[in-house]
Amino acid sequence: MNRGAARRAAKRERSAEQLAERKQECAQALLNRPWVSKEEDAELYYAVKDHYEELRGWFMDKAGLPLLLTRTMAKLDKAPVGAQPWMGFEEFREPQDYVFFTYGLWYLESKTELDQFLLSEMVEQIREQMIAGGMDADWRVYSHRLSMARALKKLRVLGVLLGVDGDESLWAQNEERNVLYECSPAARYVLRRFPWDLTDARELRQLEDPVAYADTADGQNGRIRHRVFRRLLMEPLVEDRDWSEEELKYVQGQRRAILDQLEKTLGWNGRRYREGMAFFHPGLTSESELFPTQAAVSDLALLVSGELRRLKDEGSLEPQPDGAIRLTMSELETMLLRLRKQHGKYWSKEWREDLSSSELAALCLDHLKSWGLAERTAAGEVRISAILGRWQAEYGEEERE
């Protein structure tokens, strides 16, 4: 091969790599954002549009997730296999917030793009609709207004509801205040599409499947494949013990294909461990929130991981057959007190002095649970996944200084 041909081949190879990376960026954005808006990120929107057919085919074939493309947005219609506490809106404090959020979407579906309306009109129609359905909504009650204000604010943050004049937080303080809104074209795409009439559903599990499956061997095989990929795409960690018998058989039989597919489409590095498959993002930044997070509680989790490894190496802890560690809450608290004594000078005043050992343990455990790395057993013990042992950290020179 002459030098000119070699340069052209290298250029084609670089172009192919750049194209693959761009498709991975599109897939990650669709998976982690509510949608990709043309107005907010035109470059990415057009990249998704360029790769639309390939992306739509992959998400539907592997996970059963429809990819929608309109003149203003691209949206992957995501449906988790099972709802998890961390999947909710962090800003919401009560179940009522979600009720008002949903009724806000109901109201917006009657509006056309750029329709303007007042908050007073909106909440009055929502109240009437809720009362007709046997639910309570009284805007004279401060807690109801505060809850509705949180729902409205979330709709604005998502870009579903556009504020023209005024602020719902002022209305929450004084019912006489008003706000002028405008309807966004994204409003009718927020709620997930279902392949059947929702009124036919009698159990929550009937809402888990994003598409209808034929009652045949091929239909059920497709359902298993979709459930496996959806969990791997949407949950931080799925161990072998978390799969059903049919799903585990698929995971074990298709292990190499699963690892290759997720690496090619999303750029994830997958590893097979004794306890199950785990996936890692190769870069420091990503569309996804990654573990360990930037929050200080992740530092605490890594210190616990290192302490567990030390105790295991000393023979003080005996792992379970799957590599997991079981502790009582008192043992976890004792471990954290020991870590506080050893590293407390690097911690915040709150962690060092204000929090009790039980509060510190609850903080750490909640963080690990949200990442699928720990759980409370029926016996009240703490089960810590062997996957946590893949991380270990200690304070460096910067913290010591």
What key phrases describe this protein's structure?
401 residues, mainly alpha, Arc Repressor Mutant, subunit A, three-stranded antiparallel β-sheet, 15 helices, 11 strands
Termini separation (Å)?
A: 56 Å
The radius of gyration is 25 Å
Structural class: mainly alpha
Spans with pLDDT under 50 lasting ≥5 residues?
none
Mean model confidence by pLDDT: 90
Share in helix: 40-55%
Overall geometry:
globular
Order of helices and strands: HEHHEEHEHHEHEHHHEEHEHHHEEH
Biggest sheet strand line-up: 1-3-2
Number of H- or I-type helical stretches: 15
What is the number of strand segments?
11
Proportion in β-strands: 5-15%
Oligomer: single chain
How is the biggest beta sheet arranged? 3 strands, antiparallel
Question: If you had to describe this structure to a student in words, what would you say it looks like?
Answer:
The chain is mainly α and 401 residues long. Among the domains are: 62 residues, no CATH class; 104 residues, Arc Repressor Mutant, subunit A (Orthogonal Bundle), CATH 1.10.10; 105 residues. Helix content is 49%, strand content 10%. It is built from 15 helices and eleven strands. Strands 1-3-2 form a three-stranded antiparallel beta sheet. A three-stranded antiparallel beta sheet has the order 4-6-5. It has a three-stranded antiparallel beta sheet with strand order 9-11-10. A hairpin with a 2-residue loop joins strand 7 and strand 8. The chain is globular and about 70 Å long. The model has no long low-confidence stretch (mean pLDDT 90).
Annotate the secondary structure layout.
Elements: H1 3-32, E1 36-37, H2 42-50, H3 52-63, E2 67-69, E3 73-76, H4 95-108, E4 116-118, H5 119-132, H6 142-157, E5 161-165, H7 168-173, E6 180-183, H8 217-234, H9 245-253, H10 255-266, E7 269-273, E8 276-280, H11 296-314, E9 325-327, H12 329-343, H13 349-354, H14 357-370, E10 374-376, E11 382-384, H15 397-400
Helix pairs in contact: 1-2, 3-8, 4-5, 4-6, 8-9, 11-14, 12-14
